[in-house]
Specification:
This protein is α+β, with helices and mostly antiparallel strands and 237 residues long. It contains 7 helices and 10 strands. It has one domain: Phosphatase 2c, domain 1 (4-Layer Sandwich), CATH 3.60.40. The chain has a 5-stranded antiparallel β-sheet. Strands 2-3-4-5-8 form a 5-stranded antiparallel β-sheet, covered by helices on one side. A hairpin with a 2-residue loop joins strand 6 and strand 7. It is globular.
Length: 237
């Protein structure tokens, strides 16, 4: 018996940056399961590519049935187990990765993340950033009420405050929402969104199939320095 067509369509791509020795990003694109994810190995640490691939492999092994709440809970347990495993593996140095995942069930969606890989939503001609970066920059802005420009001047502004396999126990953030016809989701690593303006992201998401949107985003980034690895997953009805 043929399986029912997936109600959501998607496309993903990852590419090594122009100055990187290896790609430390990875992604999951499983529309039939209603599950997508992007992971970015922590730069400056050993085996960042191993950590990001471990995140994606762990999420790919999850069962895709059950109510959304149960699936979110299973995903969180999965990442917490992996966090403990990577912590043991990294006794002599951090082995860590960001993660941002999107689960969809019917008319409901959940975004789960740790780190600074992001989830965006394009809805009714407006672009919304659903995830909030777990970074020193965001902490300085929130706790010390600094402007973005002031916080960016801090030498550790881009350092992560949460990650899978980080030195601190994993703390995941979850955002649930109802989906609407015409919604378009974008999961991406910082190598992609840092190279594009809010307007460029919105313009790219506003038209075309997921594959066309992904190719447009990569073409825009590749015109510039593209020093960091870049990854994008686009999801739409």
């Amino acid at each position: 018996m043929n399986r029912e067509p997936a109600p959501w369509h998607s496309a993903g791509r990852t590419q090594r940056g122009k100055v990187r020795a290896r790609n430390e990003d990875a992604f999951l694109d499983r529309p039939q399961s209603g599950c997508w994810a992007v992971a970015d190995g922590m730069g400056g640490h050993r085996a960042g590519d191993v950590a990001s691939q471990a995140v994606i492999a762990s999420l790919a092994a999850l069962h895709d049935h059950g109510p959304l709440d149960q699936r979110v809970a299973a995903l969180r347990r999965c990442l917490h187990r992996l966090d403990r495993h990577l912590d043991l593996e990294g006794r002599h140095g951090t082995i860590g990765s960001t993660v941002v995942a999107l689960l969809v069930e019917g008319q409901r969606a959940a975004c789960v993340w740790a780190g600074d890989s992001r989830c965006y939503l394009w809805r009714a001609q407006c672009l919304y950033q659903l995830s909030r970066d777990h970074s020193v920059l965001e902490r300085l802005m929130a706790e010390q009420q600094l402007s973005r420009e002031q916080a960016q001047a801090h030498p550790d502004a881009r350092a992560l405050t949460r990650a899978v396999g980080g030195r601190e126990p994993l703390s995941l953030e979850v955002l649930e929402l109802d989906t609407r016809p015409g919604d378009v989701f974008l999961l991406c690593s910082d190598g992609l969104y840092q190279a594009l303006s809010h307007r460029e992201l919105g313009d790219a998401l506003s038209q075309g199939t997921p594959q066309q949107v992904v190719e447009r985003l990569f073409a825009l980034v590749w015109r510039g320095p593209a020093r960091d690895d870049l990854t994008a997953v686009v999801v739409q009805p």
